[in-house]
Design goal:
Blueprint (H helix, E strand, L loop, with lengths): L1 E4 L11 H7 L6 E5 L11 H11 L6 E5 L25 E6 H4 L8 E5 L1 H14 L5 H13 L10 H22 L5 E3 L6 E5 L40 H13 L4 E2 L20 E5 L16
C-alpha cells in the first residue's frame, strides 16, 4: 500500500444502495462514498457496506472513492469503518483522508490517500501536474504531527481521542443551541463530522419577502414575511435556503450554508417536502459563542 500526500475534494449528495445498483454499468466507473457524510453527518455502518459490496461485486470495473476526512469526529459511541478493510473490495477502494481536518489546519489542504499500488502509482504520476497548494514545509510538519499525535495529549491517551472528545462536546453544545433557537426548524442531529443541518421547511413562510431577491434592500414591503409557500412567491430570484441564509446573516449576524449548493437544483420533479432547498448547514468547528441565543441585532 502506498500513501500519497495530497488533497482531493469530492462532493456528492447521498444515494441509497438501490440507486447505486441501478446506476452501475459498463460506463459507470466510480462510486463516491463519504463517511461521516458531508453535509448530513451520516456514518456508514457494516450492514450498509455489505449491501454496497454485493452491488459492486456485479460491476468489477467500478472503483470506490471513499472520502473519510472526518474519521475522528464520531458521536454517540459510533465507530468509523473503512471500506478498504473488506478484503472482497479493498483493491478497488481509494480511501481519502484529510490531515487538515484532523489537525485543524484546513487551509493547508493536506491529506493522503490509501489505495492498491497500481492505482497509487497512477495518482502519483498525475499529482505531479495537478498539485495546486501543498508544499514541502507543510508535508514535513504534518508528518511530525502524525507521529506526535500518537503520544498522550491534554490528559487523553493520544491527540485523536482528544479531538474526538472535543467535537462530541461541540456537537452537543451546538445542537442544544439550535434546538433552543427562535425558529420553527427541525435539527438533524449528526452522527459524525463537522456539521449540523436544520430542516427549515416550516420556517420558509416566516422569511421576509425581500430576501428572495438580489436587490433585497430596495424591495417594497420587503420586511413582511411571505406568509405562503415558496411556490407562491412571485418571480423569486433566490431559493428558500439561500433566502433564509441571507435573513439569518443580515438580521441575526449568524451564517449558515444553504444546502442547494450540494445538489442539482434544475430537477423540479421532486415530491412535495423533498425539495433540496429545505435544509441549511451549521459548522460545529466554530466557537459556540457565535451561535448563542440568536436574536435580531443591530449591525
Amino acid at each position: 500500500i502506498l500513501i500519497i500526500f495530497f488533497f482531493l475534494m469530492i462532493r456528492r449528495p447521498p444515494r441509497s444502495t438501490q440507486s447505486r445498483s441501478s446506476a452501475a454499468s459498463d460506463v459507470y466507473k466510480r462510486q463516491v462514498l463519504c463517511t461521516p457524510q458531508n453535509p448530513t453527518g451520516k456514518v456508514a455502518i457494516h450492514e450498509e457496506y455489505q449491501k454496497l459490496i454485493q452491488i459492486l461485486q456485479k460491476y468489477p470495473k467500478v472503483f470506490v472513492l471513499s472520502d473519510e476526512v472526518y474519521e475522528f469526529m464520531l458521536f454517540d459511541g459510533r465507530k468509523h469503518l473503512t471500506l478498504a478493510t473488506y478484503p472482497e473490495i479493498r483493491d478497488r477502494v481509494i480511501s481519502i483522508h484529510s490531515l487538515g481536518k484532523t489537525f485543524s489546519c484546513t487551509g493547508w489542504r493536506v491529506g493522503f490517500t490509501i489505495a492498491n499500488p497500481t492505482v497509487s502509482a497512477g495518482m502519483m504520476a498525475s499529482q505531479n501536474w495537478n498539485t495546486f497548494l501543498i508544499n514541502r514545509p507543510a508535508s514535513v510538519a504534518i508528518k511530525d504531527a502524525m507521529i506526535q499525535a500518537e503520544q498522550p495529549y491534554e490528559n487523553f491517551p493520544n491527540y485523536y481521542e482528544f479531538i474526538g472528545d472535543l467535537f462530541i462536546k461541540r456537537k452537543n453544545e451546538v445542537v442544544e443551541i439550535l434546538q433552543k433557537a427562535p425558529f420553527n426548524w427541525h435539527v438533524l442531529v449528526p452522527e459524525g463530522g463537522f456539521f449540523a443541518c436544520c430542516d427549515i421547511r416550516k420556517c420558509i413562510k416566516d422569511i421576509p419577502r425581500k430576501y428572495f431577491y438580489r436587490d433585497y434592500e430596495h424591495i417594497q414591503d420587503g420586511d413582511q414575511p411571505i406568509s405562503c409557500s415558496f411556490k407562491e412567491v412571485q418571480n423569486p430570484e433566490h431559493l428558500p435556503d439561500y433566502a433564509f441564509f441571507l435573513w439569518l446573516t443580515v438580521e441575526y449576524k449568524v451564517t449558515c450554508i444553504p444546502m442547494n449548493s450540494f445538489h442539482d437544483t434544475s430537477n423540479t420533479d421532486r415530491p412535495e417536502g423533498q425539495e433540496v432547498y429545505n435544509f441549511v448547514r451549521f459548522a460545529l468547528c466554530k466557537s459556540c459563542l457565535l451561535y448563542t441565543s440568536p436574536s435580531p441585532r443591530d449591525s
